[in-house]
Design brief:
ATP dependent phosphorylation of adenosine and other related nucleoside analogs to monophosphate derivatives. InterPro entries: Adenokinase, Ribokinase-like. The chain is α+β, with helices and mostly antiparallel strands and 87 residues long. Helices cover 30% and strands 16% of the residues. It has one domain: Adenosine kinase, small domain. The protein contains three helices and four strands, in the order E-E-H-H-E-H-E. The strands form two sheets. A two-stranded parallel sheet has the order 1-4. The protein has a two-stranded antiparallel ribbon with strand order 2-3.
């Protein structure tokens, strides 16, 4: 017999922004291909610039370890009417 309960996840949700960029765009923000960085002040305008420059090809991908685990748990739960959220 299945029991009802609450599944709560605490973590840092992330939003990946993916585009097929150009070398010019990378150079503008002092970035290297296939690299990860911690954003600095000089990168603040990059996100809106990316959305404008590559408007037809921007892909927004929600994620983060907690959100992904909660989404997987939701798929595996037997009671499909339950809502899950990540905060």
């Amino acid at each position: 017999m299945a029991r009802e309960g609450i599944l709560l996840g605490y973590g840092n949700p992330l939003l990946d922004i993916s585009v097929n960029g150009t070398e010019e765009f990378l150079n503008k923000y002092d970035l290297k291909p296939d690299n990860a960085i911690l954003a600095e002040d000089k990168h603040k305008s990059m996100y809106s610039d990316m959305a404008k420059t590559f408007a037809d090809h921007v892909e927004y991908i929600p994620g983060g370890a907690t959100l992904n685990a909660i989404k997987l748990a939701q798929v595996r739960l037997t009671t499909r009417s339950q809502n899950v959220c990540c905060n």
